[in-house]
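Throughout our pipeline, every protein is held as a single compact record rather than as scattered files. Such a record has a labelled line for the sequence and another for the backbone structure tokens. This encoding replaces a full spatial description with a residue-level series of whole-number codes. For reference, a complete record is included directly beneath this paragraph.
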Amino acid sequence: MAKKESSYSKSIEEIEAILAKIENGETDIDDLSTEIKRAAKLLQDCKEKLFRAEQDVEKIMRSEE
């Protein structure tokens, strides 16, 4: 079964939660690498969503000209 894509805002919320845990020293050193990898994946997903949204807006703007 395919994993449902998370929304941009949910991804940002999760990134912020990960960062807060790390900054507050709540992340065990054994889990730090996993948390960082998860945040990096979420950031990449967000970048891709922003890029797609930008492409869509540009396409709409061109069609309105």
User: Anything to note?
Assistant: The chain has one domain: 8-64.
